[in-house]
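Each field is set out as follows.
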Amino acid sequence: MRFAAIALWALLSACGSDTPPPDAAATAQTRKIERDGYAFEVGPVPAWVVAADIPPQWDADAPGAGDSRWRNWLFDRQADRRRGVRARYSDVAFEPVSAELVGDAGKYTIGFNPEYQRLVIHSAELRRDGAWSNRLDTGRITLARRETDFEADMATGVVSALIVFDDVRAGDVVRLRYSIVGENPVLGGSDSEVATFAWSDPILERRVRVLFDRDADVFEWRSPQIAPAQVARDGDAQEWKYVQRKIEGLHDEGGYPRWYSPYAQVRLAERRSWGEVATWAQSLYPQPQALPPDLELRLAQWRAIEPLDARVAAVLTAVQEDVRYFGVEIGDSTHKPAEPALTWTRRYGDCKDKARLLATLLQRLGVEAYPALVSSRNGKAIAQWPPGADAFDHVIVQVRLPDATLWLDPTQTLQRGPLRAIPVSELGVALPLAPGTKDLATVARPAQARDRIAVVERYAPAAAGREVVLTVRTDNEGTAADRARRDLKAQGREALQRRFVEYYRRRYGEVRETAALDVEDDEAANRFSTIERYTLVDPWESASPGERAIETWGDSLNQEVALPNTVERKTPLALRYPVEVEQRAELVVPEGWHWQGEDGESTLDDVAAEFTSRTETKSGEIVRTQLYRAKTPVVGVDDVAAHLRWRRQVHDSLGRRWRFALSPADADRERDRRLQGLLRGLIDENAGAAKRAKP
């Protein structure tokens, strides 16, 4: 639902306190309505709000005036941060131009957390044929705790207010005004105002207005395409205002680097340092209470493990896999972690719970370790933003060994191999909750980290028949091994084998499995291998008499060079990095057969990646090796077009048709088989004709 998503976005930074709103008169006029165990209020627009007008006509020169399925007439977001209060007002107006979208326009969802927020609905209106009508029917508003993140193992306590509009038609303008008052007290005022200045459909007018205390030192970050704010002081307020009109709908190209957003944004907050944010966060991670006896016993066992890297790895594995990931982020547990003893005893926790547990255990073993706040959604982009608690959405652990600094994620599972080769995602920066932290720290990928896949397909044709024995070995190393290991655990061996064999059936037709899927897991080296064995019943393609042909395909490389959903791009493109994929096809040449081709090598180079292909004959075999290697995690805008042309070239070269001239004896057998097939076809055809001619 396009506008419901906007309502949720408007909430994302709408955290406030239990302090009464600044407009006491408006509060006195509100009417509280309880429903289904929750409550919302109905009342007038607060006096501090500067109301916007909706024009009678959509501007003829504005985007959406012609061919448009949906039009956003107004997005107005205003916030009052004076005296430490948080009150946020939204005014949204939209029009379903297409009748197919009337269903979306007829309902609107607002999320809020009743533990510390109040929802006040001011009005719900509809304009048809130039006339506005009141559509606020409080009896049709339902409140329910819809845990939209529950499938992602997260319970947040957010309540959804569903507002239903009757009799909405294409061309109607629906308008809703509401406020959310209150802030999560655990944030301690360390939040920002965030406003986005584009959406998937055209916007006629986007307004943002934020009130600070008159003498507040305001930190502003804005995308370069947004005009500077209009700043004014009046009475006790410092006003920051942005107005942008006639905004085109944004096509989401996808495939962005973590740190990049195509949506122009403004972020405002009272100026503070990252050191102040770290001090706030450290208060949420006090000295832990006593640990349970069984965990003390485990600590004694871990303490005996040598060397130090193996000891740290053993603790990491226990926290990752003995404590499942599940978060109950209600009340102060949105940011305050549970006691390590509780997390261990109940055997579940979210990222901050597991990070605190891991750091506590390592500290008990004499290892310097601290929880570290990161942004899994925005990566290094947060370094530009106003420092604040709301910049982060994930917690990992910084481990300071005598000769290295490591970053470990206790929410991952089945990570194996050397401790110093275990990577985290491309997070860019982190805020370690260590004494004396003053700034963000760089999260560097370990130099030893690998992400490598090597596939060998070995084809052994039967000289006398048409069957081919195919053996496939796939070696995954580093991060690729972790992924493959998780895949096996999640799907099971039988389902995984079924998926593999179906792939070859799509390629070659009838396939018989000649052995169960074999798995080799070298956890110390973090190498995970699978071995598949099949018989291809008749994989040969049509060829000239006395010849056979078969095609191989570098499918393992295909995922790296497949074109993105949007090819004509104006934005950077992310690559999996660092990654190396090698696929080798080995074709055994039966005695007397002759391959009708030549050895050779080619290289296709690009600014972001490289690809080589080499074919050579040796000892009665033909071997074709294809290798892909990424050079950089991001393809810049100026290089995207050339890079995608390179991908097309690589993709077109992944397949190879192999033609063989048969030995005289095999050629005779092939000729006899074809003749028998032709004769059988003629006999069947004549029999059918005779049957049809029978009186």
Q: What stands out?
A: The chain has four domains: 2-271, 281-442, 451-661, 667-695. Confidence is low (pLDDT under 50) at residues 1-26, 148-154.
